[in-house]
Amino acid sequence: MASPEPQSDAPSEAPSEAQAARPDAPRPGLWALWREDLRSHRGEWSRPGFLSLAVYRFGVWRMGVKPKVLRAPLSLIYRFFFVRCRNVYGIELPYSAAVGRGVVIEHQGGIVVHGNTVIGDRCILRQGCTLGIRRLDQLDDAPVLEDGVALGAGCVVLGKVTLGTGCSVGANAVVLKDVPAGAVAVGIPAKVLGTP
C-alpha cells in the first residue's frame, strides 16, 4: 500500500546521503520509515524513543494528505499522540523539525527539539537533550546535526550551530559554537577536545 508523500509546502525528513546524491530518487513511505525506526530501536516497539519518532513520522506524512478536509482528522490524531509523547515520555519532537533516517532516541525524559532543528541520519539523542534557540529575537536559529552525531545525557545545543559529521557532545555540555566533524565537545560552555 503506497502512502502519500509530503508536498513541497510541508516539512519533510532530512534527506539521506543517497537522496542528496540523487534528489530525483523516490522517498520512502510512512511504513518503510516506521520499519527503519523500529530496527534502529532494536525491534522494541514499546520504547518511548521509537514511539515518539513514529508519531513524528505520522505528523510529517499527514501534511502531504490532500485535500485539507481529509487532513483535519489526521491532525487531531497527531496532536493527541504528540501531547501524549510530550507529557508521558518527556520527548518533544514536533513534525516541523527535519529528522533523518536511523535516528535513535536512547532514553526518555526531558528531550526538547526546536521545530526548525535539522537532525541527520544515524544520530543518537540521550535523555535530557535540548536542541533549541539561544535568543528570543532569533526564533529561527536552530541547531543542525549532521550525520552520525552522538549527544550525551543532559547536553544543550543552542542557536544556529552545526555539529559536524560523527562528532560527539559530552554529558551536560552546553554547545554555543560549531563543532567540527569527528570532534568531541565537553564542558560549559563546550570546548572541543580534539579533531581527527
How would you describe this protein?
By secondary structure, the chain is α/β, with parallel strands linked by helices. It has a single domain (17-194), classed as Hexapeptide repeat proteins (UDP N-Acetylglucosamine Acyltransferase, domain 1, 3 Solenoid), CATH 2.160.10. Helix content is 27%, strand content 18%. A hairpin with a 4-residue loop joins strand 14 and strand 15 (191-194). Helix 2 (30-40) runs antiparallel to helix 3 and helix 3 (48-62) packs antiparallel against helix 4 (68-89).
Beta-strand segment tally? 15
As a whole number of angstroms, the C-alpha radius of gyration is 16 Å
CATH architectural arrangement: 3 Solenoid
Question: How far is the N terminus from the C terminus?
Answer: 45 Å
At the fourth level of CATH, the homologous superfamily is Hexapeptide repeat proteins
Low-pLDDT segments, ≥5 res: 1-13, 15-22
Number of discrete helical segments: 4
Q: What's the main sheet like?
A: 6 strands, mixed
Query: How would you spell out the order of helices and strands?
Result: HHHHEEEEEEEEEEEEEEE
- Dominant shape: globular
Mean pLDDT figure:
85
The computed structural class is alpha/beta
- Count of the domains: 1
Helical percent range? 25-40%
Q: Examine the coordinates and then state which fold CATH places here, giving the name of the CATH topology.
A: UDP N-Acetylglucosamine Acyltransferase, domain 1
Strand order of the largest sheet: 3-6-9-12-14-15
CATH class: Mainly Beta
